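testing teh design pipeline on a random one, pls ignore if ur not involved
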């Protein structure tokens, strides 16, 4: 069997934070910068890290009644100036992306970050060349983020007949795979356990330690 005849019609869609990159330092600093700007109590690092992967407005709304739009603006003020440069690639990611490209997979990113910011991070880390698309928050999708119905429409229009697999560390990634009615590969490089990911999945799912543990055989077993 020539695997490339199969893999060229498979889209592997990755989450960004805690799946491909570690940007905890930048996110924590940006989050507390926003709180401090409006004289709100700072939050412990571990509590902020646990929320990574959730849209920013939801993160702020979960801890304060203060205007989340102002806090999000302040967060991005700091993040765009400094936090974005504190991201690092998780171990083994670049080698794995090269391997998957050589196997003819279509690779993409879906993130809760603003789309332009996600693209800038990938460019800074020299990862953008491995991906066929980047989907992030836009004016059209910001209310529902990864769960916006537009994402499904985009996939159907841009990749008709392709099989999609969502790869991520966060429950939002699981819900995205449920919405797209496609398999899910969970990674444990974030703040969520295998159980937390598996218990909300509808359909096929596999949990691995990290993206670097992905294999061609594992991917094809879900198709």
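output:
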């Amino acid at each position: 069997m020539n695997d490339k005849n199969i893999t060229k019609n498979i889209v592997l869609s990755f989450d960004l934070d805690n799946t491909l990159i570690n940007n905890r330092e930048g996110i924590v600093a940006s989050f507390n910068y926003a709180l401090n700007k409006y004289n709100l109590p700072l939050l412990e690092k571990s509590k902020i890290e646990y929320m990574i992967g959730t849209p920013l407005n939801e993160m702020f709304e979960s801890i304060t009644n203060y205007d989340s739009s102002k806090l999000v603006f302040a967060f991005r003020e700091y993040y765009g100036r400094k936090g974005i440069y504190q991201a690092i690639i998780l171990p083994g990611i670049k080698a794995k992306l090269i391997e998957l490209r050589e196997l003819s997979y279509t690779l993409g990113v879906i993130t809760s970050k603003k789309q332009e910011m996600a693209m800038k991070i990938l460019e800074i880390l020299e990862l953008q060349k491995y991906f066929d698309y980047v989907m992030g928050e836009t004016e059209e999708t910001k209310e529902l983020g990864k769960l916006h119905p537009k994402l499904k429409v985009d996939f159907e229009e841009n990749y008709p007949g392709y099989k999609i697999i969502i790869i991520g560390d966060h429950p939002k990634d699981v819900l995205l795979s449920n919405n797209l009615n496609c398999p899910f590969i969970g990674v444990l490089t974030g703040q969520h356990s295998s159980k937390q990911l598996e218990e909300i999945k509808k359909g096929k799912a596999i949990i691995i330690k990290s993206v670097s543990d992905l294999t061609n055989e594992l991917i094809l077993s879900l198709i």
